[in-house]
Structure formats: C-alpha cells, structure tokens
Amino acid sequence: MNTFFLIFILLPVLEIFLLIKIGGEIGAFNTIALIFITAIVGVFYARIQGVKTLRSGIINLYQNKIPIIEIVSGASIAFAAVLLIIPGFLTDTIGFLILIPFSRKILFKMLFGKNIHNYKSKQQNKIIDGEIINKDKDEL
Question: Which of 28, 69, 95, 111 could form a disulfide linkage to 83, CB 3.0–4.6 angstroms apart?
C-alpha cells in the first residue's frame, strides 16, 4: 500500500487511541486542557527557535557562508509547529522532539549523516584583493 495513505489512516487511529487512554486516566477536561496547553506552548517555543535560527542564518550570510544547516533547521521548526497545532499526544511529542536543538541535531545526523556538516566545513573563502590602475586616460 501507499505509505502516504497509511500515514493518513494510522496517525489518526493512534491519536484517537492515545486520547481515549489518557482521557480515561486523567479525565476529559484535563485531556482537552493539556492539548490546548501543549499547542500554545509549542507554537510559542517554535517562534523563539525560529527567531534564533533566522538570526544564525543572517550571521552566516554576513560571513559569506551558506546557511545550509539553518535552512534545514528552519524547515524542521516549521514542520514541528504544524505537528504541535494538530491535536494529539503523539504529534505533540514528535513536534517537541524536533523543536529541541539537541534532539534536532541527532535527527539531522540520522537523516543526513555527516554530509551536512562536511559541506559547511568545505567552504573556502576565495577572495582576492586587487586594485585596477589605468595608466591611460579616457579620451573623448
């Protein structure tokens, strides 16, 4: 079967199962309140992490470096914010794991290996300073 189709079937089933189990343990009102609190805190934290990533990317641009890690980090933070907005405990857990910088670095190493860090270290500054001297004056 198509894996994309399975995600759309299995993810809601797992979320409903967890909501029923946790709701049975802590109560319906507490479960709903917990879902709203995790969404609000998660989106707020995603905003903070996004601003830090943007700042780091701008610093890299000023230093004439390609902000490849910051671009991937920004995309993952946006994905984590979407996961935190979706109601459910499984998506909130995955979203918070992506938002934490330490676990995000581990995730990048698992997905990309060392390729992303090697690319950043291979960058070289090939700047040649020079001056143009015209001995001949322009004639009109």
Answer: 95
